[in-house]
Amino acid sequence: MASHHHHHAGHSHPPASIAPSILRLSVIERLSMSAVLIAVLWAAVFWALS
């Protein structure tokens, strides 16, 4: 069993998706992202309980 996959001849590796690193964001951006995530989680809880 191979530990990684191989590409056929003539086919290059697909480009990696570029995602912004959380550590590169400012403190305000990290806090706002976490606040949005908490709000979404609480909304899901209230929706599930109703």
Structural features, described:
- This protein has one helix spanning 27-49.
- The chain has a domain at 25-50.
- The protein starts with 26 loop residues before the first helix and ends with a helix.
- The model has no long low-confidence stretch (mean pLDDT 81).
- The chain has 50 residues and is mostly helical.
- It has one helix and no strands.
- It is elongated.
Which helices and strands, and how do they pair?
Elements: H1 27-49
* Rounded average pLDDT: 81
Q: In angstroms, what is the radius of gyration?
A: 20 Å
Quote the distance from N terminus to C terminus: 49 Å
Q: What percentage of the residues does DSSP assign to strands (E)?
A: under 5%
* Envelope shape: elongated
Described by its quaternary structure, the protein is single chain
Count every helix, treating DSSP H or I runs of 4 or more residues as helices.
1
Provide the helix percentage: 40-55%
User: What are the secondary-structure elements, in order, as H or E?
Assistant: H
Low-confidence stretches: none
> Which sheet architecture does the biggest sheet show?
none
Number of DSSP-assigned strands: 0
Structural class: mainly alpha
What are the key terms here?
elongated; mainly alpha; 1 helix; 50 residues
In short:
The protein is mostly helical.
